[in-house]
Write a structure and sequence with these properties.
With 87 residues, the protein is an all-alpha fold. 77% of the residues lie in helices and 0% in strands. It has four helices and no strands. The chain is elongated and about 60 Å long. About 10% of the residues have low confidence.
């Protein structure tokens, strides 16, 4: 009785994990943290008409740039993703 339940749970967990990874913001194209991506996002952020969203996006881009210079790529991707969310 317990084996089929465990097998089903294991199968479900194995099938859901790739779907979760595919929906992660870090897996989307364009979230690679490099100077070119930051510059492209900066151009898009400059065109934001909403002042509050623009301020947040530009602040996140500044933090992403600082993180890139400090070689903290995980932090850089996080800030870049937040900036992209505001666009």
């Amino acid at each position: 009785m317990l084996k089929p339940v465990l097998a089903t749970a294991l199968f479900f967990a194995a099938s859901v994990a790739p779907l979760y990874a595919a929906s992660s913001p870090m897996s989307k194209p364009g979230t690679e943290c490099n100077a070119a991506t930051i510059a492209d996002t900066q151009t898009k952020a400059d065109a934001i008409p909403n002042a509050a969203h623009k301020k947040i996006a530009l602040r996140q881009l500044t933090l992403a740039t600082d993180s890139l210079k400090a070689h903290k790529l995980s932090d850089c991707r996080s800030h870049l993703s937040r900036a992209m969310h505001e666009i």
